[in-house]
Amino acid sequence: MPVIHNLVTIDEQAEFRNDVQLSDFEKEETNFALLRSYLFTATAPQGQESSIGLLRAVTESFLNPRLDNRITAIANYGHGKSHLALVLANYFGKSFQSPELKIIFNKIDQALDNPAQRNRFREFRENRNEFLVIRLRGDKPQSLREQFVLSLEQALKEHTATRNVELPFWYQKAEQLLKGLNGDMLPKANQFLEAYSMDVPLLIQDIQNRKDAAYDICIKLFTELHGVAPNFLGEVSMRELINWASGHYCGDGKPLGGIFVLFDEFSLYIQRYGQRSAAGELQDLLNGIEDQKGKAVFVAFAQHDPIQVARNSIKTSQNLETLEKELNRIPRKVLMYSLMESVINAYLDQPETAWENFRSDHDVRGPLARASNITMDLFAKRYEQVLRWDTEKYDDIVTKGCFPLHPLTTALLCDLRMQGVGSAGNPRTVLGFVFEQVYQKRDEQAVENGKINWVLPTFLVDYFSDYLPGTSYLLYETAHRNLAPDAPIEHENLLKALLLQDLAKLPVRRDTQMSYLAEAAGLKSSEADGHLRKLSGDRVIRFDQATKLYSFWPVAANPHRMEEIVEERMRKQKITWDLLSKFNNTHLQPIPVDIPWGNSDDWEADEKILTLEFFTPQRLHELIHPYQITVTG
Fold first, then answer.
1. 471 and 463 Cβ atoms separated by less than 8 Å
2. Tens of pLDDT along 356-404?
3. Which residue of 298, 306, 562, 589 is most buried, as measured by CB atoms within 10 A?
């Protein structure tokens, strides 16, 4: 039997590939592969937005000029925000008949049941030409203006109708004049440029790279050569560029459908804002976007709320005030909902051959199926209704893709309620749990003592104990204190499993709770049954005779004292039929039944309490009122 590290390895670089890069848009083969691997989400909890929801918001901003067209999409590390950005770039940037759009439409169809909603996304693109997609990144060393100009030029080259368009601003004029220097002007120019550690060819290169500093150097150079400052039409403004591109090339009767600006790694841009002279550049860009409502949309992807990032990063109050003013030009913030199962799957790599050999083992095949089935049953709403996964997809992403995590561990870790628990919802911490557990088990056998060596759900309690809700955790702690000093470890693990059931509000029934508790604690059902009977017998936990379910005692309850009081009163007072009848007649009232015919009093229901001793056909017959049906009712 293999050891764990033969079956799974941690891909520590997965984050950087899983996050993707917007530059992958320009790499045809990589771009196709990433589009095929993307999974849209169509639903999200209240206060969050799905990827389909963000796509819908962007399309609606193009359709309705009254809507906000500047959006910040917030998603923590590992949530696939750059992957989504790449998909959006393709949706807007490629032609309707392109193979890229075909892949995206298929992905949308997989996420949406409603044909009308599917068709809206198709019709939006079918009725519009390709969009000018300007791709920006906050982790680049260039200024925002430099990066924007280069990206705009790149975007224009990506469409047949605008491939040969040149930006009609100072660059062309300056480059033309520099290349025209001859005679004694060229040596004079090179001598002047020595002070800037460059020569004419290097200055031309900076202009071609759209370096901001090149503008001032050109002005000074030609002033030195000719005694008068040249008119290059001023330093290029992003607002002017957007208005120019939109006015000349976007809209009805023009070759492009609009301008879509994607800004990835926006948090990094904010963090670096105070380290350079960046005041006003973001506002310049956003002003241009606002000028073109209905024809331009801006979406920034950030790890955290940009205002909070600014307050944590910018030290001087003046810079902070300026940046906050610019950030407030982005009126809409959405918190993205992401599929954590896919994030974990991206980090854990299971070699296909080794996994197939492992899964085919007789001692493994049954437990794998059992673990998957109980998880699918308890989390049917998530996997079958929301994600609409079939068994094959579930097994590929969770059972195999998240191994050695038990499927229940993965489901609980990714469940919305667990993600709402303090740091449990921080994907860095979620991945921290995964990494720690896999590293600890990497040299252990994959099967120990006849059982799969899972990362069990109970491990979550130890890792996230500081962040679990106080009320639920208090119930667990109270029960834990009532364990016998020599209680076996199985008792503690069953209490942890019961705590997780309470936290996740699992829909257990009398026929599924035992299976869940056994799986979560790493026990056979027969073993779990014996330990649970012992725990309830010792009054550590409660067993409800009516529902046949185990639960924690209320914190205020003292089960031992309660039992003593009941037994003491039972000894003093024998419950007779006369006593029970007197109690029922004194303390219980008939229950009215509202009916549209006759008198409701004639149809009222009697409520009676019976002990097991008196729950007999004879006594029930005595309690039932005789009724006679006549022709008049």
1. no
2. 999 999 889 999 999 999 999 999 988 888 778 889 989 999 999 999 9
3. 298
542-544 vs 549-551, strand pairing mode: antiparallel
Q: Are 610 and 624 in contact (CB under 8 A)?
A: no
| Residues contacting 129, CB < 8 A, separation 6+ | 95, 254, 255, 256, 257
Say if pTM beats, i.e. exceeds, 0.70: no
Count of CA atoms in the C-beta half-sphere (13 A) of 357: 11
Concatenated DSSP letters for 27-54? Answer: -HHHHHHHHHH--------TT-B-HHHH
Residue type, 12: E
Rounded Cα gap, residues 432 and 463, in angstroms:
10
CA distances, 429 to each of 190, 345, 496 (Å)? 56, 15, 20
Q: Which one, of 489, 451, 471, 269, lies nearest residue 364 by Cα? A: 451
Preceding peptide of 65 cis, ω within 30°: no
Is the separation of the CB atoms in 457 and 484 below 8 Å? no
d(CA 279, CA 587): 77
The pLDDT value given to residue 231: 65
How far is 245 from 403, CA to CA, in rounded Å?
Answer: 50
What 3-state DSSP class applies to 31? helix
Contact 509, 548 (CB under 8 A): no
Q: Residue 530 CB: number of other CB atoms within 10 A?
A: 13
d(CA 47, CA 90): 27
Q: Are 174 and 214 in contact (CB under 8 A)?
A: yes
> Cα(526)–Cα(531) distance, rounded to whole angstroms?
9
| H or E element at residue 120 | helix 115-126
Structural contact between residues 136 and 151, judged by C-beta atoms closer than 8 angstroms:
yes
> How many CB atoms lie under 10 A from the CB of residue 213?
12
Whose structure tokens read 């003592």? 449
Beta strands (DSSP E) in 337-453 are 348-349, 447-448, 451-452
Look at the chain and count its residues: 633
> What b/e string do you get for 22-38 counting C-beta neighbours within 10 Å, with b at 16 or more?
bebbeeeebbeebbeeb
Q: Is 207 within 8 Å of 214 (Cβ atoms)? A: yes
Q: Phi then psi for 481, rounded to 5 degrees?
A: -65, -25
Q: Which amino acid is at 312?
A: N
Residues with Cβ < 8 Å from 473, sequence gap 6 or more? 465, 499
Spans of the chain below 50 pLDDT: 13-19, 420, 422-428
In the 3-class helix/strand/coil scheme, how is 300-325 assigned residue by residue?
Answer: EEECCCHHHHHHHHCCCHHHHHHHHH
Question: What's the alpha-carbon Rg for the chain, to the nearest Å?
Answer: 34
Amino acid at 611: T
Residues in a beta bridge with 405: 455
By the 10 Å C-beta count (0-12 exposed, 13-18 middle, 19+ buried), 560 is classed as exposed
Tokens 């004292």 belong to residue: 561
